[in-house]
Amino acid sequence: MFIELMSLIESRPLTITVSALGEGRIRVNVVPQALAHDSKANEKIGHANKVKIAQIPESAIHALTTPLSLTGTPEEIDAELTQQLTAFVDSHRGLQQSVDQAKQQIAEAIKAIEERDKARSKSKSATTTKVQETQSDEKSEGAKTAADNLSLFDPGALPANQA
């Protein structure tokens, strides 16, 4: 029994209960416990990225704690327990791998968005600086050009006391 459960026990605590139901029947429950980090991946997404990055569905996170419940006679439980535990652990391990993979993809997506936003910010500031320099150069050149092109017929060409 514990050999089959070992890979699940390594990743999360389990609660095992056995109860008598009467008429020679028992119920065995194997309940994986929730861990604090199970839902942390969705918290990393943040409000700004919720539109850009899909969250891990709560149902998938909740499924990590889905129990196994077997009811039957002690003989039936003994005959089926190993096979049921193996299937249960395989299912949970596959689900945990999927959730872990989703967490990794979320982390990579957040990093990519942050890097893209940082690059855009640098690009915008560089473009803004270049535009400001160009405008500054044009203004100084424009002032020279206007002064060089003044004519006697321009109202601004005459001193204020002669106009």
Structure description:
This protein is α+β, with helices and mostly antiparallel strands. It has one domain. It is 60% helix and 13% strand. The protein is built from four helices and three strands; from the N terminus they run H-E-E-H-H-E-H. It has helices at 2-11, 40-45, 58-63, 74-148, and strands at 14-22, 25-32, 68-72. Strands 1-2-3 form a three-stranded antiparallel β-sheet, covered by helices on one side. Helix 1 (2-11) runs parallel beside helix 4. The longest helix is centred in the C-terminal third of the chain and has 75 residues, at 74-148. The radius of gyration is 36 Å and the shape is rod-shaped.
Q: How many domains in all?
A: 1
Q: Name the shape in a single word.
A: rod-shaped
Largest sheet: 3 strands, antiparallel
Computed Rg: 36 Å
Distance between the termini: 108 Å
Element-by-element helix/strand order:
HEEHHEH
- Stretches where pLDDT is under 50 for at least 5 consecutive residues are none
List keywords for this structure.
4 helices, 3-stranded antiparallel β-sheet, 60% helix, 163 residues, alpha+beta
Question: Short summary of the structure?
Answer:
This protein is of the alpha+beta class. Helices cover 60% and strands 13% of the residues.
Protein topology:
Blueprint: H1 2-11, E1 14-22, E2 25-32, H2 40-45, H3 58-63, E3 68-72, H4 74-148
Antiparallel strand pairs: 1-2, 2-3
Helix pairs in contact: 1-4
